[in-house]
Specification:
The protein is of the alpha/beta class and about 220 residues long. The protein has 10 helices and 6 strands. α1 crosses α4.
Length: about 220
């Protein structure tokens, strides 16, 4: 199987960058302004959804009703403003080395994220050498994770078969999305969730840190 792998599809938040604490804080803070007590664990359970999908989910679960368009934009704009004031998320240990080694082995690198922030394009290019053509963002999908669409688009962009690709995710919804697209999925648990949650979502392998992921994957490729 390993000899057939031609592309890796990486999630961004919590896989390439230690950005989930910022998202946890800004989701809790922005939801509080509309009367929703959003538990910190929810930020990790719902990571991978588009922002508006997370807002609709929270309104339905915690307020028992649909969020209006104005309410969705209110919360989303509040979160966007808060995230700009957060400290810059650091690159997770070992990920630059891993991606460089995979690329040197002739493996293509793609990033599949629910984020819509324009700055991510320059950031991924500068930090990981990933061009815009190899990014699937929240702007490219009609249905975000856990729907398979993000990874199906990545497959289409790559031109490879699902058997020739591997996904690296940190969130259960991302794993579900990848598995629904039929792609072998590695989970790396960089957040607050019990690792079993990622296995229950369908992960084929589980690592407890990006360093462990880098060490084991580098030995294989």
């Amino acid at each position: 199987m390993l000899n057939k792998i031609k592309a890796f599809f990486f999630d961004m938040d919590g896989v390439l960058y230690d950005s989930m604490p910022n998202h946890e804080y800004t989701w809790i803070k922005s939801f509080k302004t509309v009367g929703i007590d959003f538990p910190s664990e929810e930020a990790y359970l719902n990571e991978g959804r588009t922002g508006f999908s997370t807002i609709r989910y929270a309104y339905k679960k915690y307020l028992g009703r649909e969020a209006s368009i104005d309410e969705q934009h209110l919360v989303y704009n509040r979160k966007t403003a808060l995230i700009k004031d957060c400290p810059k998320a650091k690159i997770l240990p070992g990920m630059q080395d891993l991606i460089n080694q995979l690329r040197n082995s002739g493996i293509d690198i793609y990033v599949v994220t629910g984020s819509k922030q324009p700055i991510l394009i320059d950031k991924l290019l500068n930090d990981f050498g990933v061009p815009k053509s190899n990014i699937v963002s929240g702007n490219d999908v009609k249905q975000g994770k856990p729907h398979p669409e993000p990874y199906l688009i990545a497959l289409e962009k790559s031109g490879f078969k699902k058997e020739e690709c591997i996904v690296v995710e940190n969130a259960p919804l991302g794993v579900e999305s990848a598995k629904a697209a039929g792609i072998y999925s590695i989970a790396v648990n960089t957040g607050k969730l019990n690792g079993q949650v990622l296995l229950d979502a369908g992960a084929d392998e589980l690592f407890e840190s990006t360093v462990e992921l880098m060490q084991v994957t580098s030995d294989k490729f």
